[in-house]
Amino acid sequence: MGFFDFLADAGSRVFGKDDPEPEATLPVIKHIENSGVDISNIKTKLTQGVVTLSGYVPNQEQKEKAVLTAGNIAGISRVQDNLILGAPPADVAEVEKAEAEVAAAEEGKAGEEAWESRTYTVKSGDTLGKIAKEIYGNAMEYPKIFEANKPMLSDPDKIYPGQVLRIPE
């Protein structure tokens, strides 16, 4: 949990140039859903280029994909990760209490919880093969990176500077 910074001028264009932020919240959640994340228990809030994700995700992979997908949207400069791993409590009061506790615990923390995978910010001239060579020592390992970022990546040749990718171990 914590804050994750992104380049606001890089990313998928999901908002129109004149879209006000309240209407932009729906595309953020739909974009997350399109990346293969179960959004049934996720809430999003968008304020001045900062997306806050709260609710429940079934596993760490889904959590990481939700954060990275939201951050890889043009106009988003930061993602506040308040997602909780696991199923939500059956009692609505318990859900609200747990979410309030997470939000309170997040005050002053910035990404202190360890992710299962690393992240990599794409630079100009990068390819998945070049990134794989740098990280794994073998350019032919690029399918690992591609698979870990599907469906955010639809083609291994379509990455762009500023995009943040999941790098599995």
3D architecture notes:
The protein has 169 residues and is α+β, with helices and mostly antiparallel strands. It folds into two domains: 2-106, Histidine-containing Protein, Chain: A; 118-167, Roll (Membrane-bound Lytic Murein Transglycosylase D, Chain A), CATH 3.10.350. Helices cover 34% and strands 20% of the residues. The strands form two sheets. A four-stranded mixed beta sheet has the order 1-4-3-2, with helices on both faces. The chain has a two-stranded antiparallel sheet with strand order 5-6. Strand 3, helix 2 and strand 4 form a beta-alpha-beta unit. Helix 1 (21-34) packs across helix 2 and helix 4 (128-136) crosses helix 5. The longest helix is centred in the middle third of the chain and has 15 residues, at 92-106. The chain is elongated. Mean pLDDT is 80; it is low at 18-23 and 108-112.
Detail the topology: elements first, then pairings.
Elements lengths: L1 E4 L15 H14 L7 E6 L2 E8 L2 H12 L6 E8 L6 H15 L11 E4 L6 H9 L5 H7 L15 E4 L2
Parallel strand pairs: 3-4
Antiparallel strand pairs: 1-4, 2-3, 5-6
Helix pairs in contact: 1-2, 4-5
